[in-house]
Amino acid sequence: MAWRSSGATNEALVENLARNGLIKQERVKKAMLGVDRAHYAPYAPYEDSPQTIGHRATISAPHMHAAACESLLPYLRPGARVLDIGSGSGYLTHVLAELVKPGGKVVGVEHIQPLVEMGTGNTRKSAEGRDLMDNGGIRYVKADGRLGWPQEAPYDAIHVGAAAAGFHQALIDQLKAPGRLFMPVEEDHMQHIYVIDKKEDGTVTKTKDMGVRYVPLTDAPID
Question: Count of CB atoms within 10 A of residue 75's CB?
């Protein structure tokens, strides 16, 4: 139903995602209504499709952002700490921050400075985004996303927005117990979402979910 979810406005897009069963939880709907995708997508912001943002990076389709939020929602409580690997234009970083306020924090990680600056600039386009950044609710950093951001670990939830070549133990290590990691993984030339749960006793389970197509997770500089 994703192909039927595009709209003429941010509200229409989100309402269509909900009507088509791609957004199920009211908290996710409210958060996505509160973040105007036009601040983060360079063209056709209300289409339910991925778009290039330059630097060989993309902003994922809104239905994938909704799926990530729905999956991570049990761990997205006020005051929670979240890591967003491959934060790109900053859209999902902002949505996640809406879900963990007040008192929460989302760290967006990108591997090149222009994308860090893009996320920062886009988030500051709205009063809500400026407030979150000024009050420490959102921070963008340049780093190798495959290694996470141990400086502010552990995290209640981790989202990875690019396809990993495997299960990076550094990310699992930076999860709280309990905590959840949502990431695309490439296996045998195919990609699937994996939901990785760390239980209170530290045991880890990996659940294979839908097939997807993401850009690769890398730290390589881009020409």
Answer: 23
Degrees to nearest 5, angle at CA 72 with 104 and 115: 70
**Angle at alpha carbon of residue 91, lines to 211 and 196, rounded to 5°:** 40
CA–CA distance, 185 with 16 (Å, rounded to integer): 28
Ranges of H-type helices in the chain: 10-19, 26-33, 62-72, 91-100, 113-123, 127-134, 169-173
pLDDT in tens, the chain (223 residues): 555 799 999 999 999 999 999 999 999 999 999 999 999 998 899 999 999 998 888 898 999 999 999 999 999 999 999 999 999 999 999 999 999 999 999 999 999 999 999 999 999 999 999 999 999 999 999 999 889 999 999 999 999 986 666 778 999 999 999 999 998 887 677 788 889 999 999 999 998 876 556 555 565 544 3
Selected catalytic residue, list 5, 6, 49, 60 = 60
Cβ contacts of residue 120 below 8 Å, gap of 6+? Answer: 90, 133, 140
| Number of H-type helices and E-type strands within the chain | 7, 9
pTM value surpassing 0.90: yes
Annotation marks residue 60 as catalytic? yes
Inter-CA distances, 181 with 18, 91, 198, Å? 24, 18, 8
